[in-house]
Every structure is written in C-alpha cells, then in structure tokens.
C-alpha cells in the first residue's frame, strides 16, 4: 500500500514534560480508543500515546495496510523522531504485540534509540501456532460469530449487516498483516546470537480462547530478558479484568521511572 497519511498515527503531540512515553499498539479490527482509559491507571510521568493505524476511527478515510513489512516501515518513519527524543516503552495488544515487537527490532537494526521495555499482550510468538485465523478462512457470518465468541464483538452486531460491512473488511486486512509477519524482519528464534538486547514483559489471559500462555511465553526466545505473567480474563483482559492487569503493568512502569538514569520528576 502506498499512501500519504492525512492524519498522524498519534492523536496528539506528546507531552513535553513526560518522563516516559508509552506507545500503545491496538489489536486487529480495533483502534486507538482501546487505550482511552489507560492514562488514569498508570503512574504520573507516563505519557500514554495510542498509535492509530489508517482505515479506522479518526483515520477511517485512509487506505488500510495489508502487509506487516509496510506497517512497520511506515510507523518507523513516522515515529522515529518521537522515539529518539527521550525514554520510551511500548505496549502491543494481540496484533499490536507483533507490530510493536517488529518495529522495535527494526529500530535496533537501524541504530535508533531502544525502548526501556516492551510489553506484549495476548499474542503468540511467531514461532508458536498463529494467534488469529487466516484472513479468508471464514465467511462474514462465521467471522462475526468468532469475534463474539472471544469477546471482540458485542452480540448485538450479529443482526446488523450494515455495521459488519464496515467492521469486517478492517478486520480481514488486519488479519493479512498478522499472516505476513515473516515480512516484518523479526529475528530468528533458533539463533541465540540474534536475540534482541531488550527486556520484554508478556501477558496472557488465563481464559483466552485464542492463545495459550505457553505460546505467549515463546516470546522469550527472541530477547535477552523476559518475564511472563498470566492474568485473569480472556483475549481482551485489559477491559475484561483491568484491575489485575494494571496491577502488574503500573508497577512495571513505575520501576522504569525509578531506574538509574531515568529522567527526574518535574518540580511540584
């Protein structure tokens, strides 16, 4: 896809006085609004910056991506100035986990500023079985029912063909992104020398019907430092069981703010 974005992938300018920027990457079929409540749950000094892919929400008029390599390349070019300005971390949920990891891998190859940590949720490492189905396995009715079954769609959508005609093409293109992860420049999980010098914290929902915790745990094969946490809830545990999830994420971010070399807090 070749497109000139009419709207930035960030909905606003980063806060100048933030001590840590947290770039958040949404799930397949979703958008930046998934992270709308996060700022109030995280430590002061963390600037939550949801990343919006084109073709949905505020960018609904723009052509969508269908290829993981193109997504990573476009985000890398747009976000590079922001990622180089100061300390940052990233959280990616489901498809967003793969996008966040591939973007970070590209940054490291290019000599860009690395993240303080990378947080990945509800997505199997590429070396494991795929988290999400191929884009064309199900017809529209079957795909909509699957979304309802794992909590990605309200049952009220099943009777609304007009809504599904908008939603399902977005989801199918996002599934194409997931299926093309081999074009995103990920390291070889079987090569210990290719492991990235990063700290990754991964989260899995204990009741997730799409991805098992051991498949999420396989992200540890890609990096030097890894921690895995299983939290209550299904595939969308940040919404289904937010307190346990943020009970882990918030302290992890607080530790980054307290680490030696972290920017000082702004004067009160």
TrEMBL record:
Recorded coiled-coil stretches: none
Domain of life: Bacteria
Gene Ontology BP annotations: lipid biosynthetic process
InterPro entries for the chain: AB_hydrolase_fold (IPR029058), TEII (IPR012223), Thioesterase (IPR001031)
Pfam families from the UniProt entry: Thioesterase (PF00975)
Thioesterase domain segment(s): 21-250
Annotated protein name in UniProt: Thioesterase
Family: Belongs to the thioesterase family.
Top-level taxonomy: Bacteria, Bacillati, Actinomycetota, Actinomycetes, Kitasatosporales
